[in-house]
Structures are given as structure tokens and as C-alpha cells.
């Protein structure tokens, strides 16, 4: 079961996330699993693999926004880095950053038992 303690142990800034959710802990905890839904991550991964930098930017930007609002810092940081590189349409190997995003997502899912 996902708890504030688990999120704190993960490295999330739960105080910030709760503030954005008007201190409604149940609402905040309900939103976190939606931020981990596989579709958003797959869309980003697929766009990167297709070298679709415009599509990858859109996917990364949307993911970054969700992660920022929930203050899921360890997952937000690599997503944010990718977003800024994609915003500049930087031609590079995004695989290491994408792996970090997948790994952080999985780490949180494992910690939360999701």
C-alpha cells in the first residue's frame, strides 16, 4: 500500500506534492499511481526509438509536468533533463536517460507494491 512514508523514503517531496493537492493526502496518494501508468513512458520511449524528437519532447514535457506536480523528485529529475535536451532537439543517445526514467519508475512501483 502506498503511503506518505514510502514516498518520503523514495525521495519525493511529499510536503510540496501535498500542498499542490490542498493537503488532501488521499487525493495525493490516489494520483501517484496514475503518474506511473505505463502508457506515458512507452509513448516517450517509442518516440525516442523512432528518433521523433518532436513527439519525444511532447511526451517528456507532459510526463515532466505530472511528476513535478506530484513532487516525485527522483523520477522528475531525469524526465526534466530529457525534456530540456529534447526542447533543444539535441541529437544524442537518449537510451541512458530513458533507462534511468524506467528504473526510477520501477523502483517506486516496487517500493509502493504497485
Provide a descriptive summary of the structure in words.
This protein has 114 residues and is mainly α. It contains seven helices and no strands. Helix content is 76%, strand content 0%.
What are the main properties of this structure?
elongated; 7 helices
Produce a short descriptive summary:
This protein is mostly helical. The chain is built from 7 helices and no strands.
Beta content = under 5%
Q: Please give the alpha-carbon distance between the first and last residues.
A: 8 Å
Helix-strand category: mainly alpha
Task: Count all strands and give the number.
Answer: 0
Counted by DSSP, the helix tally is 7
Runs with pLDDT <50, length 5+? none
Can you give the helix content as a percent range? over 70%
Order of helices and strands: HHHHHHH
Q: Characterize the largest beta sheet: strand count, sense, and whether it forms a barrel.
A: none
Radius of gyration, in angstroms, nearest whole number: 14 Å
Rounded mean pLDDT is 96
Shape: elongated
Write the layout of secondary structure elements.
Blueprint: H1 4-10, H2 14-20, H3 25-35, H4 38-49, H5 53-69, H6 73-87, H7 95-112
